[in-house]
Amino acid sequence: MSLGARGSAQYAHRISWTIANGLIADGMYVLHKCDNPPCVRPDHLFIGSHAENMSDMVSKGRQHRGVNTGGVVLNDATVGEILRKYSKGDTSALALASAYCVQEATVRAIINGLTWTHVDGPRLTRDEIIAIGKRNRAAARIASKRANGWRPGACSACGKRGHYRPKCPESAP
Questions:
Q1: What's the pLDDT band for 163 if we cut at 50, 70, 90?
Q2: Which pTM value belongs to this model?
Q3: Which tops the pLDDT comparison, 151 or 62?
Q4: Contact 33/41 with Cβ under 8 angstroms?
Q5: Quick check: helix, strand or coil at residue 111?
Q6: Angle at the Cα of 164 (from 161 to 169), degrees rounded to 5?
Q7: Is 167 helix (H, G, I), strand (E, B) or coil?
Q8: Helix ranges (DSSP H) in 10-157
Q9: How many CB atoms lie within 10 A of CB 150?
Q10: What angle do CA 156, 158, 160 make, to 5 degrees?
Q11: With 70 as the cut, is the pLDDT of residue 19 above it?
């Protein structure tokens, strides 16, 4: 970085472009043909928008994906396992997050196709994801009730439905 005309910090390649070709339009980027950030040769530089800059990055394989990003806990194989296990419909995003030591939001982003999109695995439609979520929430509610003594059907003390024995007014001491 060096100082620009008004004393603000400017990258050297932007100053090089300005000297060789004139002012850079607002919102435009100076990109490198040579893929060498310190390079200031005007014949190695070109102007582009943010979208063109991102496209250039992807075409040259410089974007960070999957295990190439810093601080990742998962890898391509474990992400594939997460996709397969969730698509079976018998486990929740929360359970998977706990099993793989990540946040539930991380698992949901994988399942919804927002991250780790390069990994092969069963990709569910939005409706399938919602249906699995509903089934998992219902199963969790039933498991919680069963842990507190609830059993489906009528109360064994009074024969009425809608409550379980520890809460039955007729079986109170």
A1: low
A2: 0.49
A3: 62
A4: no
A5: helix
A6: 90
A7: helix
A8: 12-21, 50-59, 76-88, 93-99, 104-111, 126-147
A9: 16
A10: 90
A11: yes
